Known about the structure:
The structure holds two protein chains of two kinds.
Chain A: E1 4-7, E2 10-13, E3 19-25, E4 31-38, E5 42-51, E6 54-57, E7 64-66, E8 76-78, E9 87-94, E10 103-104, E11 108-112
Parallel strand pairs in A: 2-11
Antiparallel strand pairs in A: 1-3, 3-8, 4-5, 4-9, 5-6, 7-8, 9-10, 9-11
Chain B: E1 3-7, E2 10-14, E3 19-26, E4 30-38, E5 45-50, E6 56-59, E7 62-66, E8 70-75, E9 84-92, E10 102-103, E11 107-112
Parallel strand pairs in B: 2-11
Antiparallel strand pairs in B: 1-3, 3-8, 4-5, 4-9, 6-7, 7-8, 9-10, 9-11
Amino acid sequence: xxxxxxxxxxxxxxxxxxxxxxxxxxxxxxxxxxxxxxxxxxxxxxxxxxxxxxxxxxxxxxxxxxxxxxxxxxxxxxxxxxxxxxxxxxxxxxxxxxxxxxxxxxxxxxxxx
Amino acid sequence: xxxxxxxxxxxxxxxxxxxxxxxxxxxxxxxxxxxxxxxxxxxxxxxxxxxxxxxxxxxxxxxxxxxxxxxxxxxxxxxxxxxxxxxxxxxxxxxxxxxxxxxxxxxxxxxxx
Lengths: 113, 113
């Protein structure tokens, strides 16, 4: 049981490039989400999904795109990378029962030059 | 707008020196308050959920308490392995059906041997 797996662990991009951050979970969790973590700002929600085929925007969605074709996978796409998107990105999943805790992956450290 | 503030930003303790971390919140109806531990290079790891004022939960050297305005994470006789960043997050009745979390920016705890 691997939990939440994120790939890659590190990535450097040039401004304007696009890429996809991968997230997979093997716990059959309905709810999945993407956060970014910046120094002094805490985790901020980018996008989330309550089940396959359903996605919605969080607090900071601009410049990011998501899709959820299966329960297990929830990729995050950067459409045209900007230096302001330099951050650590975390994927999380949980069951949708009452106040279930989120389980986090170990993050992708992304630098945009 | 929901706000979560953690203090202090950083705390250095000697091994065995007990202390408390604070999480104050301003929300429009608390549904639950979550504490997480985050080690360097890792994702947050769930510790506790508190639901109502007066509630307490314990795990090893950690005890979390909740009032109507704040939560404390008490660390009794800490050890170097307790060194980590501790995050708190709130879930409110206005979080929507997805019950998103709003995170504080964390307290970085260092326990010296």
